[in-house]
Specification:
By secondary structure, this protein is α+β, with helices and mostly antiparallel strands. It is about 25% helix and about 15% strand. Strand 7 (about 105) and strand 8 (about 115) form a beta hairpin. The longest helix has 11 residues, at about 155-165.
Length: about 230
């Protein structure tokens, strides 16, 4: 049988701050070598608790924001002085002590006070004001969007078209599929001349709702839609 003194190695002693008795820094507890060098009290004054025992012990607390009851382990309790039942409660409580943004800038179009990081007020954006000019988007020309060479140059035009078709019955004009539909231009945007106004491109008679399959067929000239009238958009 292995001698305990050999198994523990060099034994160093510490003095308990409570009972002033000497205790070993290294002990055998439940067949395991436990180091107590970070302790100031002996095992009699402060019994040793394994990680498993510390995790199973739960403390009942109140949420600091809504006063709902919650339970935490002893380790979680010692981690912070603030305890919350959810992330939303933590955010609500912490945001009360943060200064809100101040309206310091004026809208480029209507001069309403807005946040410094914005260019237009929410009302102008809702009405379709364009970021590159001071007029409504339907009064702009297609040439105003040629300064970008990427595939998203017509994004604002497509977003404006989606607003127009948002009041229609959301189903495919061909197969009546209603789970997912897309706003399509019967005459493609790139087929218009550069001096064409957006209100002509996004005229309701040039917009149609299609499912993704029929939209692909329309873009690849497989599907031919000869006529789309205003009465059909109801």
């Amino acid at each position: 049988m292995v001698n305990i003194s050999k198994k523990l190695g060099v034994l160093t002693m510490k003095k308990c701050v409570q009972c002033e008795k000497s205790f070993k820094e290294i002990n055998i507890i439940d067949g395991k070598k436990i180091r107590l060098q970070n302790r100031d009290k002996c095992l009699e004054c402060l019994p040793y608790k394994s990680k498993k025992n510390r995790a199973t012990k739960r403390i009942e607390l109140k949420c600091k924001n809504c006063d709902n009851l919650l339970t935490k382990t002893e380790t979680e309790y010692k981690r912070s002085n603030n305890h919350f039942c959810s992330r939303s409660c933590a955010a609500t409580y912490n945001n009360k002590h943060i200064n809100k943004k101040i309206l310091t800038k004026k809208c480029k179009n209507c001069k309403t006070l807005i946040y410094a990081s914005n260019v237009y007020c929410p009302e102008c954006i809702k009405k379709g004001r364009h970021l590159t000019s001071n007029g409504f988007i339907e009064n702009n020309y297609l040439s105003d969007y040629q300064h970008r060479s990427d595939s998203n140059r017509y994004r604002s035009i497509r977003d404006h078209a989606k607003k127009i078709t948002s009041t229609r019955t959301q189903k495919c004009h061909i197969c009546n599929y209603n789970k997912h539909v897309e706003t399509c231009h019967i005459k493609d945007i790139k087929d218009f001349s550069l001096n064409t106004k957006i209100k002509e491109i996004n005229n309701p008679s040039n917009l149609i709702l299609l499912c993704s399959n029929h939209h692909w067929e329309l873009d690849h000239k497989i599907l031919s839609i000869l006529k789309w009238t205003l009465s059909d958009s109801d």
